[in-house]
UniProtKB/TrEMBL annotation:
Pfam families: T2SSF (PF00482). This is Type II secretion system F family protein. It comes from Eiseniibacteriota bacterium. Keywords: Cell inner membrane, Cell membrane, Membrane, Transmembrane, Transmembrane helix, Transport. Residues 66-189, 269-391 form the Type II secretion system protein GspF domain. It comes from the Bacteria. Belongs to the GSP F family.
Length: 403
């Protein structure tokens, strides 16, 4: 029979701890409940234990569905524990179901929902937990959960748009490089063998293409090693404070793609902060959470500067304007929101506008990249074809001149 190690408090608030031998975790909770112990921790005592959530991922879609169903059941008047129990049993992912089940038991033991969620930070982030805490404190948990579900769905849609904007040029560039390497490795050597029988001096473009082909065939492993070393160096550089800031600064200043990333970051910032403030989360906590979820170091630092400004009794808009990162319209609307006391509404309006702007920017980028990549690919392939046929033209002219 397994042994469970538990910690808890008595009804008088005195800390207690011990071990109990029962068949199941539920039995241990039942025994301790009868002893009037408020359980704060309960773990099975084993020599080796696999992580309870290892290998199981919870997608944004899973979290959005869970949140929306939770809100619906709470608004229908079902008790909190019963809602969690139903959601745990009907979860399509066993790992997520186990997490919800543990949250259920912790709530049964006397924990608040926010504290219970806080013990599973890999699934429920700071934003989720803070909004739930605000909903519990204000007695509007169902409204907060529904607002949270809408936020998660919109944030996921925005993330997918920005990712698609970054993936598209990367895929096109990879295909272009792959086609070029294929020609240099497999096609050009066939011409090289034929040229060796011609004799005479080869044209300069042909020499360059043959040199690239021979270099790629002989030193492909050097190129792979250099790419690997470059990737490691970049990763280490990006892990530093200055490196992270430098790369993110360069990303948002890139032509076309930088516009998509900046508008996506602004939309995420305004949507997140607007949702947190509307849910009753204090603005200082909201700005800190928003900075951690900004997705860009430059934006995050500007947000934390705004947080320091608020703490000193100043406005949010002034430091955002001074950062030079946020567009003037965003700064102006935030300033108006602060003056009128409707900051959450203004932030939501800005978020809606910039989410639409991201759609437009992605479409614009796609329409620009397609013809550019066609011209680049045509230039590379056409250049190699011309370089390969120049010796043939020279040979034909020599033969014709001899006749």
């Amino acid at each position: 029979m397994p042994t469970f190690v538990w910690k808890g408090r008595s009804l008088a608030g005195e800390p207690q701890a011990g071990e109990i031998d029962v068949a199941r975790r539920e039995d241990a909770l039942e025994v301790l409940r009868k002893k009037k112990v408020l359980v704060t921790s309960l773990q099975q005592k084993v020599g080796f234990k696999l992580p309870s959530f290892g290998g199981v991922s919870v997608t944004t879609k899973d979290l959005a569905i869970f949140t929306r169903q939770f809100a619906t059941m709470i608004s229908a008047g079902l008790p909190l524990v019963q809602c969690l129990d139903i959601l745990a049993k009907q979860s399509s992912k066993p790992g997520f179901g186990r997490v919800i089940g543990e949250v259920t038991r912790e709530v049964e033991s006397g924990s608040t929902l926010a504290d219970a969620l806080g013990r599973h930070k890999t699934v429920f982030d700071d934003l989720f937990r803070n909004m739930v805490a605000a909903g519990e404190a204000g007695g509007v948990l169902d409204e907060i959960l529904m607002r949270l579900a809408v936020y998660i769905e919109k944030a996921d849609a925005l993330k997918r748009k920005v990712q698609s904007a970054m993936v598209y040029p990367a895929v096109v560039l990879t295909v272009a490089l792959g086609a070029t390497c294929f020609m240099l490795i497999f096609i050009i050597p066939t011409f090289a063998k034929m040229f060796s029988d011609f004799g005479g001096e080869l044209p300069l473009p042909t020499k360059i293409v043959l040199l690239l082909s021979n270099g790629l065939k002989m030193f492909w492993w050097v190129i792979i090693v250099m790419i690997a070393i470059g990737a490691v160096l970049f990763k280490n550089f990006y892990a530093t404070e200055n490196g992270h800031r430098t790369v993110d600064q360069m990303m948002i200043k890139m032509p076309v793609l930088g516009d998509v990333l900046l508008k996506g970051g602004v939309a995420r910032f305004t949507r997140t902060l607007g949702t947190l403030i509307a849910s009753g989360v204090p603005i200082l906590a909201g700005l800190e959470i928003t900075a951690r979820t900004a997705g860009n170091k430059v934006l995050a630092e500007a947000i934390m500067t705004a947080r320091a400004s608020i703490r000193e009794g100043e406005t949010v808009a002034a430091p955002l304007k001074a950062s030079g990162v946020f567009p003037p319209m965003v700064v102006q609307m935030i300033a108006v929101g602060e003056q009128t006391g409707a900051l959450d509404e203004m932030l939501t309006k800005v978020a809606v506008f910039y989410e639409a702007e991201v759609d437009t920017a992605v479409d614009t980028m796609t329409s620009i990249i397609e013809p550019i990549m066609i011209v680049v690919m045509g230039g590379i392939v056409g250049g190699m074809v011309v370089a390969m046929y120049l010796p043939m033209f020279k040979l034909i002219s020599v033969v014709a001149g001899g006749n």
